[in-house]
Amino acid sequence: MNNLLLLEDDISLIDGLQYSLNKNGFHVDIARTVEEAKNSLTDINKYDLLILDVTLPDGTGFDVCEKVRKQNTQIPIIFLTASDEEVNVIRGLDCGGDDYVTKPFKLGELCSRIRALLRRAGVSSQDKTNILKCGDISIDLLASRVLLNGRILELTNAEYRLLCLLVRNANRVVSRDIILNDLWDGTGNFVDDNTLSVYIRRLREKVEIDASHPQHLITVRGFGYQWKEVEA
């Protein structure tokens, strides 16, 4: 049974979510404030995934996410938000979130996203056995560390997975559908194009000298994206 931490202050939502998630085979601990969540996460290794509401009485889920990413870069994080405005999506992804669900949501959708993130976390932990090199970029799959021209890139978990996919397929065009299906384990119907566009834009800002004139992460209009090998 996977252990989840739910940060949510709406009691009616908590009761329904806890009951339903338990029925779906998840054990759920509850935190109703940012402070409670941070106290629960003193032993972060006991959790497999975090579900964080955005707006809390004493802060935001973003605060918790940022603290967590300083301790553990791999644990999956889903945001619950009452708004799907791009500014909230960007903030959540920038601080290290892996996915977001807009209220009101269907329980089946949430459970599918949870399972997809847990599967990816399990696969990635078994697949960290070597170094992936491509021109001026080197990815240490064991340490989840990326070096570009000898400089360490600070990437969110989602940005790291996206980069690995593109670099593995260097010099080939990867369609948006393939990216969504690969990163979200076939649950791409739950992820809109806007989310992927945010990932691409933020990753490009970190890997390019001039994001307006990219050399590495190229958009192939009407098809998808391509990682071009650039010699060190």
TrEMBL record:
**Alphabetized InterPro entries for the sequence:** CheY-like_superfamily (IPR011006), OmpR/PhoB-type_DNA-bd (IPR001867), Sig_transdc_resp-reg_C-effctor (IPR016032), Sig_transdc_resp-reg_receiver (IPR001789), WalR-like (IPR039420), WH-like_DNA-bd_sf (IPR036388)
Keyword Membrane in the entry? The reply is no
Keywords from UniProt, A to Z, are: DNA-binding, Phosphoprotein, Transcription, Transcription regulation
One GO biological-process annotation of the entry reads: regulation of DNA-templated transcription
Can you give the residue ranges of the OmpR/PhoB-type domain?
A: 129-229
All copies of domain Response regulatory, residue ranges: 3-118
This entry's Gene Ontology molecular function terms read: phosphorelay response regulator activity; transcription cis-regulatory region binding
Q: Which residues bind DNA?
A: 129-229
Q: Which residues carry this modification: 4-aspartylphosphate?
A: 53
Q: Which GO terms describe its cellular component?
A: cytosol; protein-DNA complex
- Pfam family, any one: Response_reg
Q: Which Gene3D superfamilies match?
A: 3.40.50.2300, 6.10.250.690, Winged helix-like DNA-binding domain superfamily/Winged helix DNA-binding domain
PANTHER family per UniProt: ALKALINE PHOSPHATASE SYNTHESIS TRANSCRIPTIONAL REGULATORY PROTEIN PHOP, REGULATOR OF RPOS
Q: What does this protein do?
A: May play the central regulatory role in sporulation. It may be an element of the effector pathway responsible for the activation of sporulation genes in response to nutritional stress. Spo0A may act in concert with spo0H (a sigma factor) to control the expression of some genes that are critical to the sporulation process.
> Which named protein is this?
Stage 0 sporulation protein A homolog
Q: Which organism is it from?
A: Anaerotignum lactatifermentans DSM 14214
